Amino acid sequence: MFRHVAMFRWKPETSTDAVADIVEQLNGLPAEIPQLRAYHFGTDAGINEGNHDFVVVADFDSADDYVAYRDNEKHRAISSAFIAPHAAERAAVQYGF
Predict the structure, then answer these.
(1) What is this structure's pTM?
(2) Contact, 8 vs 43, CB < 8 A?
(3) How would CATH label the architecture of 2-96?
(4) Which residue from 58, 73, 87, 89 has the least number of CB within 10 angstroms?
(5) Domain ranges for the chain
(6) Are 8 and 54 in contact (CB under 8 A)?
(7) What does the pLDDT look like over 41-84, one tens digit per residue?
(8) Are 53 and 13 in contact (CB under 8 A)?
(9) Contacts of 18 (CB under 8 A, 6+ apart)
């Protein structure tokens, strides 16, 4: 198995409506990308100071399947149109398990 984790800090002006739009867009990705084995995302619970605001966790059978997701046109369009305009910071890691 192979996992991708991406964490975001939103710009201060990012509204809850903008985050709801991101969630709505991400909800559609599993139907578009057959390589996704598990797909979870959400807003930080706000328990610890300094955490990122939002996380995406995606599981794949292989690194090649992750690359197919990374390069998928729908995924890239969501990233460009919905996430990038609101992201102040992004951190990511990919690993096998």
Answers:
(1) 0.95
(2) no
(3) 2-Layer Sandwich (3.30)
(4) 73
(5) 2-96
(6) yes
(7) 999 999 999 999 999 999 999 999 999 999 999 999 999 999 99
(8) no
(9) 10, 82, 86
